[in-house]
Amino acid sequence: MSSVAINKGKNMQATVLESRQGQIWRKDDAPMVMECNKDSLAGAVSQRACVFCGSRVVLYPIADALHLVHGPIGCAVYTWDIRGALSSGPELHRLSFSTDMQERDVIFGGEKKLYRALVELIDRHAPAAAFVYSTCIVGIIGDDLEAVCRKVAAEKGIPVLPVQSEGFKGNKRAGYQAACNAMRRLVGTGETAGISPYSINILGDFNLAGELWLIRDYFARMGVEVVANITGDGRVADIQRAHGAALNVVQCSGATMELANMMESDYGIPAIRVSYFGIEDMAAALYAVAEFFPQEPAIMARTRELVREELAALLPELEQYRRDLQGKKAAIYVGGAFKAFSLVKAFRTIGMEVVMVGSQTGTAEDYRELAEITDPGTIIVDDSNPLELASFLQEKEVDIFVGGVKERPIAYKLGVAFCDHNHERKEMLAGFEGMLNFAREVHASVTSPVWRLLPRRAAS
After folding, report:
1. What rounded mean pLDDT belongs to the chain?
2. For 11, what's the count of Cα atoms within 13 Å in the CB-facing half-sphere?
3. Three-state SS across 34-55?
4. What is the mean pLDDT of residues 273-283?
C-alpha cells in the first residue's frame, strides 16, 4: 500500500495513502468530486466503527429496554455504556448483557444459549422490550435470531426484536439501517389517543449530558408536544405511539433519517432535518418547527420570544471569547456530517476559521453542503485515518481539533488543543446554553498557557 506526499504550501506536506485520494478534497477552483459511503480501505486503520457498533449506539439510549449482545464477550465490552446517554427514569440500558459465545457454541450453534439468556433476563428485569444484536460470528454460523426472538416474544408477551448487525456486512451506516429496521417493528403498535395536533417526535438526539431535556424544554415553551424521543431518554411505549405525531424532527440524519423515511412511507408523517448545535442552527430548528404549524400563529410568536431571550443572555459573553479567538484555526472530524455543518458555523460565531472538516459516515450530499459553507483551501475528508489526520493538523497548523475519543490522542501527541464532541462526553453542547459551554471550552483549551511551551509555538 503506497502513500504520496502532497505539497500544499508553507513547505508542509500531508501524507495520504494513494488509494485514499478520492475521499479527500481541497476547496479550490476545481469541481467538487468526492468518493464516500464505501467500505474502509484495508490496512488504513479507519476511525470508523463496525456495523454492530453502529446499531448499538442508536438503540442503546432506549432506557427501559433490555439490550442483549449475541456474540463473544468482547463485542459487549467494547460497546458497554458507549454513549453518555442520561435517563430520567429507568437505567436498564446501562447494563451490558452478552451470551458470551465460546468455541462450543460456535461449533454446535448458539440458539439454545440465546433462548435461555433471554428468558432469564426478561424474568429478572421485566423490560418493556428486548433488542438482540447479532455479531459477526453469529452471521457466520447462521443462528436464526428471528426464530428465537419470535418464540420468546410469544412466551413472554413483550416485543423481542432482532437487530441484524453482523459487523462484516458493511460499515457503521449499515448499523444505523439495522437499528431503524428494528425500531420500525415497534412504531405503530401503541395507542395515539390524546396526542396534540401540534406534536413532534425528536429523532437523532441521544440525550448526551442531558441535552434532550433542554431541547424538550424549548419545544414546551413554544407550545409543541414531544411524543417520542428516538432514542435519547427513550421509552418503548413512546416509540410504539410515535406514529401519532404530526412531524418528525431529525437531527442525526445519518443515524435515524431512514426511520423517518419509513414512518413517512408507513404513516404519512413528514420529516425535517435540523441541528441543535450553534446559534444559527438552533434558532433555525425552532423556527422550522414553528413554521410547520401555521394554523397556530401563537407558536411562532412564542418561538421568536424564546430566541430573543436566549440570545440576549448569550451574545455578550460570546463576544468576550471572540476577541481572544479571532483568527485561530480549527479542524473537525466527527461521526455524522450533520454535526460538522453546525460546528463550522459555531466556530465562525466565535471568530475562528475551519481549515479541515471530515466525517466517518458522510454522504455525497453532505460533502457538497460542506463545500458550500467552508472557506477556500479547506480540506474535506471522508472516513479518515490517524496518518491523514495527523498530517492535516500539522499542515494547517491548527489551534484546536474537535473529534471523539479516538482522535484525542492524535491531537495531544501533536501538541494541539482538543474538544470532545463525541457520544462519550459529559458536557452539554447543544442548544443556546450548549453554544456558551462550547465557546468556554474552546477558549480555555486554545488559550491555555501550556501551548507556549511547544517548540513550534516558541519559535513563532
Report:
1. 91
2. 0
3. CCCCCCCCCCCCCCCCCHHHHH
4. 95
* Cis ω before 231 (30° cut-off from 0): yes
pTM of the model: 0.91
| Confidence category of residue 20, pLDDT binned at 50, 70, 90 | confident
Let me know: does 65 contact 42? Beta carbons within 8 Å.
no
At 219, is the secondary structure helix, strand, or coil?
Answer: helix
Query: Strand 271-273 relative to strand 247-250: parallel, antiparallel, unpaired?
Result: parallel
Domains of the chain: 3-33+326-425 (3.40.50.1980), 51-184 (3.40.50.1980), 199-308 (3.40.50.1980)
pLDDT tens per residue, range 408-447: 999 999 999 999 887 778 889 999 999 999 999 999 999 9
Contact yes or no for 383/195 (Cβ under 8 A): no
Stretch 125-147: mean pLDDT: 96
Q: For the segment 289-327, what is each residue's pLDDT rounded down to a tens digit?
A: 999 999 999 999 999 999 999 999 999 999 999 999 999
- Produce one character per residue of 155-179: b if its CB has 16 or more CB atoms within 10 Å, e if not: ebebbbbbbbbbbebbbbbbbbbbb
Burial class (CB in 10 A: 0-12, 13-18, 19+), 184: middle
**What does DSSP assign to residue 185?**
T
Q: Whole-angstrom Cα distance, residue 371 to residue 354?
A: 12
Count the helices and strands in the chain (H runs, E runs).
18, 16
The residue written with cell numbers 431571550 in the block is: 309
Rounded-to-integer distance, Cα 292 and Cα 459, Å: 56
